[in-house]
Amino acid sequence: MHEKEEHPTQVPYMLFADTEGQIYDHPEYQCVGRSGKDTVELKPEDFIPLPEGTDIFFLPERKALGLNPESQEIEELEDEFAVAAFVSPAHTQTYLSAYQTSSSRKSKLPLFAYAAVGWLDDRFWVTATRVDPDIRQDCDQFDQKVVKNNFKYLSKKWPENRLLQHIGHCATVYFCPAARNFFQYRWEAPLPTAPKCNARCIGCISWQPKSTGVTSPQNRIDFVPSPEEIAQIAVAHLNRAPNPIVSFGQGCEGEPLMVWETLLEAVKLIRKQTTKGIINLNTNASKPEAIDELCANGLDSIRISMNSAQKDIYNAYYRPVDYSFEDLLQSCKNARKHNAWVSLNYFVFPGFNDCDAEEQALTNFISEGNPTMIQWRNFNIDPEWYASLFETAPKAMGIKNYMQRIREKFPHLYHGYFNPGEEIIQKFLER
Ligand code: SF4
């Protein structure tokens, strides 16, 4: 939590939607939330003003729930649908939207995050907390005209570069913040490389089997760019961008370690041409030896993705093909051996992460692996789909409480949402 957060004077009123998707605030009933598999009452300090760039959804086939202030009972609104907020980047959801699913429900919700949201004093309030002051993905920072013009200009300058065309598609079709920052010549730029993956994540955002009935928000890159194509884009960005970072491992690809030899050649090529900025790898960390080799040859930072530090909960979601949970810890150690920055890309599902068993497992992972940062990321998945992977939900302590306990246990650990740039890394690692 960065600057002092603003909270409402009371629990906001609940929101509900009609069949047209028109959203209304209830004149009396209060907003309630979901934690794990439970519907829970909320407190004013659980809410912050809705951050700009947040999307508000109505949830078909899911009935709205609210607290009747007179009976103090949580009640279902018969013919009204639930509403949820997909909070903007840099903010972590602390409670999910609460609803009663209709027995006739046919479809899963798309791969977004669904936080509880209410209305009070003429504005929306959401159960979330800002965990990173960095503005790189704040929606008021983008100028699509500049993005398009620079894409056109670079396409003429590098007509043969297939990776440029792929990133240009992501910036102009998916409005990917990292791709758009590349074309606005600043901050963190994407370097997708891998068509395949050695995990089978339930909620994979780049590939979904037909059987799930869920559409993946992005399509995977269908070629492996050459080290030269990668270096051409990376060197230009590292040399001209403020706080420059180039990152392998994007939402529009599989696992970059599946083509780690290409990454190694690219990293060597890049570092031959510039020493500026940070070369980062977002990864499932399944190949510790590859991580060792990459960090020995110029990779500055890695980000290890996990939904849990508990092996069985990790396996239930990631369904690893040819690696094990222990490989994540070994990759962390190998990177730290080379004084590389290691972030945990920690997917937050309120009611599943914030429990004693998870805290113990995460404590062990951090104590043994010595990562440098934890990124408290929102888990983009249909809450019931994820919860259905587990018979029961643990006793929850609350996400903000959990964050504070990890902060107190590991005062050296950097907390945030985004991959940090050179300034923060140098300060923290005394490089
Ligand atoms: S590791 Fe990434 S690309 Fe691979 S299945 Fe999981 S989400 Fe998809």
Chain-wise SSE layout:
Blueprint: E1 13-17, E2 23-35, E3 38-41, E4 48-49, E5 55-68, E6 73-86, E7 91-93, E8 96-97, E9 99-101, E10 117-120, E11 123-126, E12 128-130, H1 144-157, H2 162-174, H3 177-183, E13 188-190, H4 227-240, E14 245-248, H5 260-273, E15 278-283, H6 288-296, E16 301-306, H7 311-318, H8 325-337, E17 341-348, H9 356-369, E18 373-378, H10 383-387, H11 399-409, E19 414-416, H12 422-429
Parallel strand pairs: 13-14, 14-15, 15-16, 16-17, 17-18, 18-19
Antiparallel strand pairs: 1-2, 1-10, 2-3, 2-5, 2-8, 4-11, 5-6, 5-9, 7-12, 10-11
Helix pairs in contact: 1-2, 1-3, 2-3, 4-5, 6-8
Notes on the protein architecture:
The protein has helices at residues 144-157, 162-174, 177-183, 227-240, 260-273, 288-296, 311-318, 325-337, 356-369, 383-387, 399-409, 422-429; strands at residues 13-17, 23-35, 38-41, 48-49, 55-68, 73-86, 91-93, 96-97, 99-101, 117-120, 123-126, 128-130, 188-190, 245-248, 278-283, 301-306, 341-348, 373-378, 414-416. Helix 6 (288-296) packs parallel to helix 8 (325-337). The protein contains twelve helices and 19 strands. Strands 1, 2, 3, 4, 5, 6, 8, 9, 10 and 11 form a ten-stranded antiparallel β-sheet that branches. The chain has a seven-stranded parallel β-sheet with strand order 13-14-15-16-17-18-19. Strands 7-12 form a two-stranded antiparallel sheet. With 431 residues, the protein is an alpha/beta fold. The longest helix has 14 residues, at 144-157. Helix 9 links the parallel strand 17 and strand 18. The protein is globular. It folds into two domains: 13-130, no CATH class; 143-429, Aldolase class I (TIM Barrel, Alpha-Beta Barrel). The site of iron/sulfur cluster has 10 residues, from loops.
